[in-house]
Amino acid sequence: MSTQKILFTIIIFMLISGCSGLISEIVTFRIRDSATEKNIENADVFLMQKREDSFVNITSQKTDSLGIVGFKMIKGGDYKLLIKADKYDTKEISIRPYETKYDIYLSPLTLKSSEPHDLFSKINYELTPHNGVIPPLTNENFSTCFSLNVISERGYIEFFSINSFFDNTIYVSNITNSSKGGVAHFCINLSEYDGYNITIDYYIKVVEEDLLHNQRQYFISKLEFG
Question: Is the pTM for the entire model greater than 0.85?
Answer without folding.
Answer: no
